[in-house]
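Customer escalation, tier 2.

The customer says the design service returned an amino acid string that "doesn't look like it belongs to this structure." They asked us to rerun it and document both sides in this ticket. The original structure tokens are below, unchanged.
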């Protein structure tokens, strides 16, 4: 998995390098596939005890879209709210009611809905706001981790070859959104299990994945599908190649 080192200026440069080094499928950042969702919940989410070597799962890992950050001052001047949608569409020459317009609206509404009255949440529209939010929650002595996906493949069977627990009981997860420029939905995680998990697929593809496990309701109907009551067993999911996990700069422990 990709590991980015500490220091605010260093982090900014390395995140930019990570963005430019990721395999992009959609140069303008908009993907109809992502508008439809990231896969069915029963194959995406699992119980924490499933994280063990030899365990097999059917998974699909996506790579990042091609959207890059706007300069901070430009991002501050560009509206990002549903009531300004006509202005946003006009600014980026997107036709109203087109598929691209639907994607833009969906992302804005998602950000507005998830972050309403929630302090530990932000949709970051610039590199500076992403770093500032994460550092404000965790301090400057942090590591930034991401899932390393060599190529995007169809959903297939993966086998876990190892599990390494990240010794941190708090963190910030940032998911890249489907938008015309880089936007990350970031939220705090508390009392969560986070892991580095190498996997190998049935066609030989190797993925070094980050897994995050929580007991709250952030995973929606995953609790119903897995028949687990919220607040009891941790529910986990693997981060895609376009997500970031921020954690305090701590050591890891091997789990067999």
């Amino acid at each position: 998995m990709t590991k980015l080192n500490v220091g605010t200026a260093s982090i900014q440069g390395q995140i930019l390098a990570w963005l430019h080094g990721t395999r992009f499928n959609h140069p303008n950042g908009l993907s109809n596939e992502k508008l439809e969702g990231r896969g069915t919940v029963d194959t995406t989410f699992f119980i924490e005890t499933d994280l063990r070597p030899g365990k097999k799962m059917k998974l699909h890992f996506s790579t990042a879209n091609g959207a890059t950050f706007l300069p901070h001052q430009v991002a501050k001047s560009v509206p990002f709210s549903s009531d300004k949608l006509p202005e946003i569409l006009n600014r980026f020459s997107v036709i109203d009611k087109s598929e691209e317009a639907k994607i833009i609206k969906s992302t804005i509404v998602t950000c507005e809905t998830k972050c309403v009255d929630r302090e530990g949440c932000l949709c970051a529209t610039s590199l500076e706001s992403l770093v500032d939010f994460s550092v404000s929650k965790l301090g400057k002595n942090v590591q930034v981790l991401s899932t390393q996906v060599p190529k995007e493949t169809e959903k297939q069977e993966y086998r876990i070859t190892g599990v390494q627990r990240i010794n941190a009981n708090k963190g910030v997860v940032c998911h890249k959104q489907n938008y015309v420029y880089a936007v990350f939905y970031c939220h705090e995680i508390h009392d969560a299990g986070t892991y580095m998990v190498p996997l190998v697929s049935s066609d030989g593809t190797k993925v070094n994945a980050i897994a995050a496990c929580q007991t709250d309701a952030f995973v929606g109907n995953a609790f119903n599908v897995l028949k687990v009551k919220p607040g009891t067993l941790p529910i986990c999911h693997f981060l895609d190649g376009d997500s970031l996990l921020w954690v305090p700069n701590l050591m890891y422990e091997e789990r067999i």
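Tier 2 assessment: The sequence is consistent with the input. Confidence is low (pLDDT under 50) at residues 1-6, 21-42. Helices lie at 8-21, 32-35, 41-44, 72-77, 85-91, 99-114, 127-138, 222-226. Sent an explanation to the customer and offered a walkthrough call.
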